[in-house]
Amino acid sequence: VAAPLIAVSAAIERRPTAFGEIDCTLVAAAYSNAIYAAGAQPVVMPVTDNPPGDLLARMDGLVLTGGADIDPALYGEEPDETVYGVRRDRDIFESALFVEAITLGLPVLAICRGMQLVNIIRGGTLFQQLISDLDHWQLGAPDEPCHAVEIADDSMLAETFGSVALVNSYHHQALNVLGEQLRVVATCGGVIEAVEGADCDLLGVQWHPEHMASTDDAQRAIFNAFVRRVESNRRGTVYAEQNS
Ligand code: MN
């Protein structure tokens, strides 16, 4: 059986090149390496203004990656002075990816910005600048934990970590109003650190497991568990097609 195909969303950023400063597609290799290590094939999905409607037709799962801030207009707010790196074309393209993935019944792993985007698509909002006793933008290396999170019972995350996880932290924003059909499954103080879908196979985490996956068994297990869900979902789909 061929390895499952995992669509991986990408940033689009202006970068200096031999052609001048032009839009480039960017994905941290940590994402693709973590997906390869879990036995799946990452497929990068470059941002385009006019995406076809069947981008995920051959894909088995979706990873929404981290990155710069989402346009606050998408949750009805004016940007404050801390908002950076907004690319509305990325926001719109990734929103289309998420909607299509849910329509197709594909498992989704949404990381950092990815979880924030899902929350907005579901009608939620963000704190544009998180005010917290703890600094959620760590200065240490990305494979080192920054803070603990408390994990809810009866969650996918609890199957991976138990009741507590040590996570890295690179976010200046956080979920505010929770979107529909989302369940908070991890918190740090009052800060939402993970959500799961009540109506779909969705895990969203505010931290960056891809940067801990090569050195931390539990963080690697997020990707392993995700790819196992993708495989069993794909088998179910094949079975349903053969018997329809
Ligand atoms: Mn954090």
Can you describe this structure?
It is a single chain. The chain is α/β, with parallel strands linked by helices and 244 residues long. Helix content is 27%, strand content 26%. Helix 2 (88-104) packs across helix 3. The mean pLDDT is 96. The site of manganese (II) ion has 8 residues, from loops.
Order of helices and strands: EEEHEEHEHEEHEEEEEH
Structural Rg: 17 Å
The total strand number stands at: 13
Flag low-confidence runs. Answer: none
How are the strands of the largest sheet arranged? 4-1-5-6-13-12-11-8-9
Provide tags for this entry.
single chain; 244 residues; alpha/beta; nine-stranded mixed β-sheet; two-stranded antiparallel ribbon; 5 helices; 26% strand; binds manganese (II) ion
Structure, briefly:
The chain has 244 residues and is α/β, with parallel strands linked by helices.
Task: List strands and helices in order, with pairings.
Blueprint: E1 5-9, E2 11-17, E3 20-26, H1 29-37, E4 41-45, E5 61-64, H2 88-104, E6 108-111, H3 113-121, E7 126-127, E8 147-151, H4 156-161, E9 164-167, E10 174-175, E11 182-188, E12 191-197, E13 202-205, H5 217-242
Parallel strand pairs: 1-4, 1-5, 5-6, 6-13
Antiparallel strand pairs: 2-3, 7-10, 8-9, 8-11, 11-12, 12-13
Helix pairs in contact: 2-3
This protein binds manganese (II) ion (MN).
